[in-house]
Amino acid sequence: MTNLPAGARTYPTELGDHIAARSRLHPAPRTYYGILVGALCLGTWDLLFARIYWNSEGVTLVRILQSVANGIYGKASRSGGAKAAIVGAVCHYFIALSMVLAYFLVSRRVRLLLRWPIPLGLTYGVFLYFFMNLVVLPLSAIGHPVFGDRRWMAWSIGMHALFGVLCALTARHTLRVTQRPSSSDTSSS
């Protein structure tokens, strides 16, 4: 390995290097598939959690999805019927995709995130909770959230921590499946 100045670019010298460089620029379809599966799992798990939690209050899945649409429509989403619920579902799964994709993209550069998926995933999930509640919601039509229900808040933070682990494990699995070791990784000493 040569000592290159910071910021210097290397160019492929062997066929394997060229394929590896190309795969970083154009990920395999399996990469997209892995991220989408992770996002679907995350979004569905979150909806299931919300549905189970609010079931005792008589809150339906349609109402939960309408509450997600509050971010776009504000209080008008309550009277938006199925249209608001569909918009809420699309927004919900887009947010889940963004959460999984963000961890995946950063973990491609910061490999430590892949080596310690449980503790760093838990940390990422707690970060997601506070980012959603202190940045995203205030910028939406909902405005600043009210943190009155401490039980919901505690459960939600715990679940977001687990969502972060799901993001971390998705990134780890997707990168492990889609990246082959380079020739320097496979050579024996």
Shape: globular
Query: Beta-strand percentage?
Result: under 5%
Count of distinct strands: 0
> What is the end-to-end distance?
15 Å
Uncertain runs: 11-22, 182-189
Keywords summarizing the entry:
globular, single chain, 0% strand, mainly alpha, disordered C terminus, 189 residues
Describe the 3D structure.
With 189 residues, this protein is an all-alpha fold. It has a domain at 37-54 and 97-179. The chain has helices at residues 15-25, 29-54, 61-73, 81-109, 112-115, 117-139, 150-178, 183-186.
Topology:
Blueprint: H1 15-25, H2 29-54, H3 61-73, H4 81-109, H5 112-115, H6 117-139, H7 150-178, H8 183-186
Helix pairs in contact: 2-4, 2-7, 3-4, 4-7, 6-7
Short description, anyone?
With 189 residues, the protein is an all-alpha fold. The protein has helices spanning 15-25, 29-54, 61-73, 81-109, 112-115, 117-139, 150-178, 183-186.
